[in-house]
Amino acid sequence: MKYYSYDDFKIDTLSLIQRVKDSQFEAIVAVARGGLTLSHAMAEGLDIRQVQSIRTELYDKSVKRDKLEVFDACRLDGLKKVLVVDDIADSGDTLKAVMEYLGKKYEDIEFVSCTIFYKKTSVYEPHYWINEADGWIDFFWERDFLR
Amino acid sequence: MKYYSYDDFKIDTLSLIQRVKDSQFEAIVAVARGGLTLSHAMAEGLDIRQVQSIRTELYDKSVKRDKLEVFDACRLDGLKKVLVVDDIADSGDTLKAVMEYLGKKYEDIEFVSCTIFYKKTSVYEPHYWINEADGWIDFFWERDFLR
Which residues are in coiled coils (chains A, B) (predicted)? Predict the structure, then answer.
């Protein structure tokens, strides 16, 4: 298990901002909780004021394939281009569910996804990602605030 | 202007978690953008999965007293106790507007506010705050990701 520090995060987030900066995103959808700190940093770096959040939960652990329910409190009507931000595409289930959900709900909006980490075994590949992950990552936001 | 680093933030956030941990909050409302990184850290430390966001904007700069409009993407129905998180109560206008708005919209929910910084000149004092601020604070999330 590799500790992912704030210093690592700073370098990678600046790279990610550099990658997506020429697209004119009007808003960021943060996939909670993992994508919240990254969304904040990207919003500052890209000068985007609108940051909203979305999250998923397993709704039936009894079925073979885990099913995800999307909890959506986003209000995106009238927008054209929205950046969806999460920390990692691991299994990829979360980001896949979120992107499908948003695409269906807002047919006129172009959604572009980005993460810091991507696993090759993920069922979904983000449009932009920075590092390939091969093991479990111990993110500073998960480690540093445990009581 | 004082640079507020991630290391400072880690110490203060752990104090803030300690202060509010005995209340059983079911959700966090993050005041975007300033409260997003803190909300993520608090959500991890308090083991709260629901993090939603809210933001304000000036809607008429011509009037003497600046007026704030609240942009609300929260769905809080059915909850009882919600923590509202922002980085600083500076003028206090934002947090005052958000707390009044939420209190009116959800009469059955108890909203408790917290920030890391509080200025004595603020028109609103959060229920919990850690440091008194006397000048401009250069938060790491505003500084470290500028291109």
Answer: none
The interface predicted TM-score of the complex, written ipTM, equals 0.94
Average pLDDT estimate for A13-34: 97
Q: Do B147 and A6 touch (CB under 8 A)?
A: no
Q: Is the CB of residue A145 less than 8 Å away from at least one CB of chain B?
A: yes
Domain layout of chain A by residue ranges: 2-143
Residues in chain B with CB shorter than 8 Å from the CB of A52 are 32, 53, 73
pLDDT tens per residue, range A93-113: 999 999 999 999 999 999 999
The CA-atom distances, in angstroms, between A30 and each of A62, B30, B133 are 28, 12, 29
B33 prior amide bond cis, ω within 30: yes
Q: Determine the residue among B16, B44, B56, B58 to mutate to test chain A binding: the one whose Cβ has the most chain A Cβ atoms within 10 Å.
A: B44
Choose the CATH number for B2-143 among 3.30.470.10, 3.40.50.2020, 3.40.50.720, 3.40.50.1100.
3.40.50.2020
